Amino acid sequence: MNDNYSFEKLSDTVWVCASEDHRFGTDAFLLTDFTAYKRNDLVCELGTGCGIISLIMSRENAPSKIYAVDIQENAIEQLKLGIEKSGLTNIEPVCADLKVLWDDAPLGRCSLVVCNPPYKAANAGIESALTSQRIARHEILCNIYDVCKAASKLLKFGGRLCMCNRPERLGDVISAMKEADIEPKLLRFVSNTPEQAPWLFLIEGKKGGKPYMKVAPQLYMQGEDGYSDEVKKIYRLTGEER
C-alpha cells in the first residue's frame, strides 16, 4: 500500500482509505445523514473521492447497491482499498466522467443520487497546489450544472438528488436543479452556533417534482458542551445508531 495512505475507522467493520489527495470532512457525514437513505435505494454517488459517503452508508442499513463514481483513477483505487478492508460487496467503484457517464450506467433507475460537489467556481479563490484537490474543490472538470444533468439521467421519476454546498452557491444550485427537471423540495442550513451565519446548506431535489420547497430547522454544530446532540448522533458519539 502507498505510504501516503491511511485507514480511518467508520464503524467496527467499515474503514475508509484517506490520503493527502482524497480526504473527507464534516460535510460528508452531514450530507449522508441528510439523504435519509434506505436499504432498497439504488444509489449513485457522483464525485466519490475516497468513497466516504458510500462507505458511511454501508455502516448499517446499507443500500443493496451503490455506484461510486469518480473521474480520478487514484480516488477509485483508494475506494477499492477501503472496500477490500471492509469486506463490502454493495459498492461498485466506477472510474468515469460524470458528463458522459459510463457504459451500462443505470440510466433512469436510481432512486437516490448524492454528490458533495466542488464548492468553488473555476478561477474563484485560491486554488490548491495538488491537482486532485483542485479538482475536488474547484469546478475544473465539471460544474454544478453538469452534476445535475448527470443526476437527471440517472434518476427515475420521483428519485431524489441530495447535495451540499456553500450558501453563496445556493442560487446556482437551485437554477441547475430546475434546468435538469429536478425540483428543489427540502433545504437545510448548517451553522456552528445560532449566532453565526450558515457555512453550509443541504438540499434535496426530486426528479419531475412539482414546485414546493420546505426549509427545515437549522442544524447547529455546537452545543453547550462541544458538539450538539444532533451532531453527536450523526458522528455516532452517543451510542445511538441511525
Give a description of the structure.
The structure is a single chain. With 242 residues, this protein is an alpha/beta fold. Helix content is 27%, strand content 28%. It has seven helices and 13 strands. The radius of gyration is 17 Å and the shape is globular. About 5% of the residues have low confidence.
SSE arrangement:
Layout: E1 6-9, E2 15-18, H1 26-35, E3 42-46, H2 52-57, E4 65-70, H3 73-86, E5 91-95, E6 110-115, H4 131-137, H5 144-154, E7 155-165, H6 170-179, E8 182-191, E9 200-207, E10 214-215, E11 219-220, E12 222-223, E13 226-227, H7 229-235
Parallel strand pairs: 3-4, 3-6, 4-5, 6-7, 8-10, 8-11
Antiparallel strand pairs: 1-2, 7-9, 8-9, 12-13
Helix pairs in contact: 5-6
Radius of gyration over C-alpha positions, nearest whole angstrom: 17 Å
Reading the helices and strands in chain order gives: EEHEHEHEEHHEHEEEEEEH
DSSP E strands, number: 13
**Poorly predicted residue ranges:** 124-130, 134-139
Name the helicity range: 25-40%
Shape: globular
Largest sheet: 9 strands, mixed
